[in-house]
Model the fold of this input.
Amino acid sequence: MSFQTTEGRVSSDTVIDAFEHFINTRQEDKPCFIILDNASFHRSMKFKQKIYEWLMNDVLVCYLPPYSPELNVIEILWKKVKYEWLPCEAFKTFEDLSFSIKSILDSYGEKFTITFA
Done:
């Protein structure tokens, strides 16, 4: 899993930067599929202009149907994080919350797992 954290609002620029970082660090010998919801920053003109460039690097961007959170795997992950994996102490300060979420995401697949069956 690849992730990037940010403080403040997420914009098309934020997402494009995260994608560029991911694309530049992935194994180039394998095609990559990125599944997106319909957030406004995924649909901006600036973002859409990058999709062709990414396609030339074997990165295919696909969109989920609108209003289908049940198909969005990240929603399942966030539900687990929020309601099962985050300790109550994580909510004391923003720094505690940020640290706890980063720790969970860093340990995803080892200490924290989800079975999609």
